[in-house]
């Protein structure tokens, strides 16, 4: 009798619904993700790359390490042990031994959430010893993101956002309630171009310092990447397509932190269930309206680039 009276809140939620509240998912996974962050940071100096994944769009998309597999395995174990009916899609789902135990890896109907994970976002940065890699966990509804948690292990910080509640930033010692509201403001004149956007650089160079990831990346010198928009180091960014597990998740964080986020033609982002292959179409992210107008103008001039895959 005493045991039944002491059923935890988490267990009660699981019994009542197949989809626990997004905040509860973050709160449950955060302590385990902090351990994963310490692990990723600890082994970074001594890790070696695994054979590249197949089918990636570029060298960055095919990079793989022990940390990618181990962190995903950890999250899978926690989810299956705590929320066994949850939908889950991890970047390494094809290699995972746990994928078959989840109810689904796909988006569900309204309020039947899909949890996604990029265990190491920026694996190439991670392999080359840079500090701007992340662990990104998201909770997706059929139309939009409900929550995103992005941890930067080497920088000992994390960001999170809940739909309609704003974005927050804290150190790894903090719980969600301790984090401070994040409102992105930037005096930067730097914009970031994702893969496939190199042709836009010449049109932006007169007004902005342009980081073109395809041509400017260096294994020796760390450059800003897309997640730098959250720290104010970028004025904006143009992304060819935003995967749910990484760049689309960062765009959600940026939007909740006050940034302007649209499609390349200036429209609102379409519902997730209308997207294909776990990715949004192109994204424009800007810290203020004048920057957005500048980026939109260039994106419209090169609109055909967003249709090339």
Concise description?
This protein has 309 residues and is of the alpha+beta class. The chain contains ten helices and 14 strands. Strand 6 and strand 7 form a beta hairpin.
What's the pLDDT, averaged over the residues? 90
Counting DSSP H or I runs of 4 or more residues, the number of helices is 10
Broad CATH class of the largest domain: Alpha Beta
- Structural class by sheet pairing and helices: alpha+beta
Measure the end-to-end span.
60 Å
Describe the structure.
- The longest helix is centred in the first third of the chain and has 22 residues, at 22-43.
- The chain contains 10 helices and 14 strands.
- Helix content is 29%, strand content 21%.
- Helix 3 (22-43) runs antiparallel to helix 5 (66-82).
- The strands form 3 sheets. The protein has a 7-stranded mixed beta sheet, with helices on both faces. Strands 9-8-10-14-12 form a 5-stranded mixed beta sheet, with helices on both faces.
- With 309 residues, the protein is α+β, with helices and mostly antiparallel strands.
- The chain has 2 domains: 2-182, Fructose-1,6-Bisphosphatase, Chain A, domain 1 (2-Layer Sandwich); 190-307, D-Maltodextrin-Binding Protein, domain 2 (3-Layer(aba) Sandwich).
């Amino acid at each position: 009798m005493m045991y039944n009276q002491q059923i935890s809140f988490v267990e009660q939620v699981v019994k009542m619904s197949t989809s626990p509240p997004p905040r509860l998912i973050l709160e449950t996974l955060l302590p385990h993700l902090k351990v994963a962050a310490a692990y990723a940071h600890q082994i970074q100096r001594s890790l070696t790359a695994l054979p590249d994944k197949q089918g990636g769009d570029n060298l960055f998309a095919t990079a793989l390490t022990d940390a990618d597999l181990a962190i995903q395995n950890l999250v899978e174990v926690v989810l299956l042990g705590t929320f066994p009916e949850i939908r889950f899609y991890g970047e390494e789902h094809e290699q995972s031994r746990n994928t078959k135990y989840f109810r689904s890896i796909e988006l569900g109907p309204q309020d039947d959430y899909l949890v996604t994970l990029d265990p190491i976002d920026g694996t190439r940065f991670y392999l080359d010893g840079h500090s701007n890699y992340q662990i990104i966990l998201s909770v997706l509804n059929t139309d939009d993101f409900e929550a995103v948690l992005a941890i930067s292990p080497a920088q000992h910080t994390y960001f999170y956002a809940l739909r309609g509640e704003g974005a927050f930033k804290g150190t790894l010692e903090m719980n969600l309630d301790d984090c401070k509201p994040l409102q992105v403001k930037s005096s930067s004149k730097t914009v970031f171009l994702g893969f496939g956007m190199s042709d836009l650089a010449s049109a932006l160079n007169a007004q902005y310092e342009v980081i073109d990831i395809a041509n400017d990346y260096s294994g020796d010198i760390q450059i800003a990447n897309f997640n730098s928009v959250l720290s104010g180091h970028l004025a904006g960014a143009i992304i060819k397509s935003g995967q749910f597990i990484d760049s689309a998740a960062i765009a959600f964080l940026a939007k909740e932190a006050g940034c302007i986020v649209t499609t390349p033609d200036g429209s609102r982002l379409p519902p997730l269930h209308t997207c294909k292959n776990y990715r949004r179409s192109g994204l424009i992210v800007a810290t203020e309206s004048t920057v957005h107008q500048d980026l939109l103008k260039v994106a419209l001039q090169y609109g055909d680039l967003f249709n090339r895959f």
